[in-house]
Amino acid sequence: MKVLVFHIGLDRYGLRLGAVARVLPAASLKLLPLAPAYVAGLLDLHGEPVPVIDLSQLAGAPARQLWFDTRIILVDYPAAGGTRALGLLAEQVAGIETVEQNTFADSGVTGAPFLGQVAGGETGMLQLVEPEGLLTPEVRALLFQPQAVPT
């Protein structure tokens, strides 16, 4: 399986490459008042607002640091009866790695539904991030208002 590898602090995480729609350089974001601290803001993507969450804060690490290789990873997120773009602000995106599916094991982590299986290897331990588990229903409703249908 191919995964896009990034860091939160010193720890390595990965997203299945099939879940990644695009990878963009870090950009300025419009802050969202009253949103949880891990909601970094809105990205203006060709005139469309895309909510962006800070994976570091979501994982309980200190707030994001902007590095040369910090990226916004766009995923198609299931919301409002379809899919919507969601940005994931990830520190130090390292690139794409191939990890054998049979090397993954249950992490035993509870309380963080976005954290998936773990694999060990020559380059260290890597934990999968499961995009579907990133947002609570309340935050999903805040970030993904139903879109008006043109008449």
UniProtKB/TrEMBL annotation:
Record-linked InterPro entries: CheW, CheW-like_dom_sf, CheW-lke_dom
PANTHER family (UniProt xref): CHEMOTAXIS SENSOR HISTIDINE KINASE-RELATED (PTHR22617), PROTEIN PILI (PTHR22617:SF43)
Residues of the signal peptide: none
A single Gene Ontology CC term: cytosol
Annotated CheW-like domain residues: 1-140
Matches recorded under PROSITE patterns: CHEW (PS50851)
Listed Pfam families: CheW
GO biological process: chemotaxis; signal transduction
Name by which UniProt lists this protein: Chemotaxis protein CheW
